[in-house]
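Dear colleagues,

As part of the handover before I leave the project, I'm documenting each prediction I ran so the next person doesn't have to rerun anything. This entry is a single chain, and its sequence is reproduced below.
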Amino acid sequence: MKSSITKYAGFLLLILSVAGGIIYNTAKGTKTEIVTTATATHVPEFLNEKETTALHQVWIYVDIKGAVARPGVYPMKSGDRVFEAIEKAGGLTEAADTGHLNLAMTLSDQMVVIIPETETVAITTVADETATIVVEIKGEVRYPGVYELPSSSRVRDLIIAAGGLTIFADTHDVSLAATLADGMAVTIMRLPVESVFEERMILVEIRGEVKNPDCYEVSDTALVRDLIYLAGGLTQDASLEGVDLLKPLASGERIIIKKFTDSVISEAGGDQQEMIDGLVNINTANLDTLMTLSGIGIVLGQRIIDYRAEYGDFASIEDVMFVSGIKESIFAKIKDEITVG
């Protein structure tokens, strides 16, 4: 019996020893964990809250390129957004295009932010005066018809070439800045009847060097050039010196177109002098004859007459390019049709 107790007593002591070791180690580990946690959360008393935050701040570096005032690499705080990087780079330039850019995107380290520039259409600095288009204008302009203009012309330029708008013109739905295309037809509509004020007609007279001197009834908004046009245009000996073509007419007014005193054309041979060897003499031809030339309408024909009345005869056919509106492209078409006599 005693030997049995001794035998089991030894075994019991072994079990108690193992259990004691487990309890000791468990208590020791718990103590260590508590100490470690306390150490990690401890902050020295001499650091304030702001300084403590700065110790834990993460900095990133961002490269910003493109349409900003000062492109370059900038240090940014973790969590900053694209718009904050733009501000640090001096802000956007006038050419910046942020239409497809997410300004609220969070930045990341080594990120490259590219601010694109607005896409623009390259504009040729030197206009190609040899390129022309042929367009037609109808409706409420003074001289409807077909005109040859530079290829860069707009609807506004076509209206000016056609003598301008009438008082009945309705341009509400017309884009005057629209670009013209070759073969295009532009129609200027008339204002509705209820919106047109009553037109007042006046009686005026024109005498002198016009084809059909007479009295004419015209609108009270008509100009001297409109009256000349109604009278069939100028004769070959007409002088516009002292005549204001843009002067409004008054009721009962008489316009006299004087004869060009330096003309060398004889009365007997005047008509023949307009054509020499089948070529139009630009020094003597009247408006109707000039309008037979390629690309020369009533506006350019009248400008030729006005130019020679002011400056005298053309010394060579190339001098016709001194006339406003006649450039190399038009000259190339008429050079084989004209002469200076």
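The first helix runs from residue 2 to 40. The chain has five domains: 1-31, 54-115, 132-195, 201-259, 270-339.

All the best with the project,
I.
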